[in-house]
Amino acid sequence: MLRLEAATVRFGGRTALDAVDLEVAEHEIVCVLGPSGGGKSTALRAVAGLQPLDGGRVLLDGADQAGVPAHRRGVGLMFQDHQLFPQRDVGGNVAFGPRMHKVPRERRERAVAELLDLVGLPGAQRRAVATLSGGEQQRVALARALAPEPRLLMLDEPLGQLDRSLRERLVVELRRLFGQLGTTVLAVTHDQGEAFALADRVVVMRDGRVAQTGTPLEVWQRPASEFVARFLGFDNITGATVSAGTAATDWGTVGVADGTPDGPCLLLVRPTGVLLGPPGDGLRCEVTGRTFRGGHVAVLLRPERGPALEAECGLRDAPAEGSSVGVTFAPQDVVVLPAPGR
Predict the structure, then answer these.
(1) Are residues 64 and 234 in contact, defined by beta-carbon separation less than 8 angstroms?
(2) Are strands 324-329 and 283-293 parallel, antiparallel or unpaired?
């Protein structure tokens, strides 16, 4: 459906997109994830025709989009600030695209009613935009983006202005809706939870380049670099040297997966793999803090040697702040990352 080939965009001396290759298959939901300034929104604008390329190509259904204006590309674009027309009611907003495409009135009204029902706002055609909550405005904006039946729907931080509980609820509804409609989606977000819940495939960007691509599970289980690991929130990382199935680290000897090549690397231990026991068992650590995170507690640790650690515990099992514990590491939660510069 969509292919970017060496897509490059420069703003003065800064390269916002650096020879990016990206593909989105028909009916696939792809989320581009990364920090601010990483090139996510620039990629979206380039696909939409709102930002010219300085190099490379954008192809839709195999056709090069060079010179094709935005309104003729057949793509929908939804921004985080909704950009609804305040002078039009809900029905008028949703019907705008079909009306511009000269869809007959009866068919247009039927499509508006069906879309509002799909997004959970049945019968809302006559409501004024000013009376809508943030979540309702988001649903209207989505219905308006879907109304012209775009071959590709692009979402720019679609839930960024909503509170967390509403975001979590809507992202589940969006995935269900897109699956029901068979919509091809390219979305950008800085929120990993949102991306992982919505996407079939995740693309992590950094400084205008693709740092990693894969299914949410692949990226979560096997981050490709220290940057990706830290962006996902993993901070238990230290230098290591692998030899014969174990890694020598500042935390001591840590087991690694069979077949791991010998040599220098970085070692990531997920918090679930930091196992707490009596102070005499394993690496001695002091508990320096506890953070409640829903169904578990993040326990912050100061080891007697090596960088700080974070462990994950059940609510009833978290040790008291200031206490001493012993730490061992579960090999299944250890990930070998490339050494810096590799």
Answers:
(1) no
(2) antiparallel
Q: What is the mean pLDDT of residues 174-193?
A: 87
- Per-residue exposure over 87-117, b if at least 16 CB sit within 10 Å of its own CB, e if not: eebbbbbbbbbbeeeebeeeebbebbbebbe
Rounded Cα distance, 74 and 334, in Å = 45
What whole-number distance in Å separates Cα of residue 8 and Cα of residue 29?
23
Which two three-digit tokens encode residue 289? Answer: 């803090």
First to last CA, the chain: 33
Spell 46-60 as b/e; 16+ CB within 10 A means b.
Answer: bbbbebebeebebbb
Q: Please give the Cα distance from 90 to 152 (Å, whole number).
A: 23
Residue 105 has φ and ψ, to the nearest 5°, of -60, -45
Give CA–CA dist 41/47, Å, rounded: 10
The DSSP call for residue 89 is: B
Please write down the long-range contacts of 12-20, taking CB distance under 8 Å and 24 or more positions apart. Answer: 15/208, 16/42, 16/208, 17/42, 17/43, 17/46, 17/53, 17/208, 18/207, 18/208, 18/209, 19/55, 19/56, 19/209, 20/56, 20/205, 20/208, 20/209, 20/210
Q: Are strands 274-277 and 309-314 parallel, antiparallel or unpaired?
A: unpaired
Query: Burial level of 278, CB count in 10 A (0-12/13-18/19+)?
Result: exposed
Q: What is the largest CA-CA distance in the chain?
A: 78
Query: For residue range 2-28, what is the model confidence (pLDDT) as tens digits?
Result: 999 999 999 988 999 999 999 999 999
pLDDT reading at 176 higher than 80: yes
Q: pTM of the entire structure?
A: 0.86
Q: Which amino acid is at 302?
A: R
- Cβ distance 146 to 114 under 8 Å? no
Spatial CB neighbours of 107, under 8 Å, sequence gap ≥ 6: 98
**Token pair belonging to 197:** 């819940």
Which residue(s) pair with 29 in the sheet? 185
Report d(CA 185, CA 187) in Å as an integer: 6
